[in-house]
Amino acid sequence: MEGQYRGCKGWRNPQFGKSSAAARPVVNTSTAVHYASVTAAAEAIGMPMKHLYARLSGRNKNDTDFQFASQSALARPEAA
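-> structure tokens emitted (80 positions)
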């Protein structure tokens, strides 16, 4: 079975470079900048993605200005 094609790896994979369908949008509440995923937000502030996700999910204390986008929309209802 040597040489048998075993799937696309790297740039040949159709999902290469795309964010996951399960990615949750993140918003910086102090600057109102929206990020498509936790990974993008973590790269913007120079923090490991797992550390930021632990803070956003409530596993660790969130001392950042970031929240999942759906949470921030619920926390600040629009004034009528």
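The mean pLDDT is 83.
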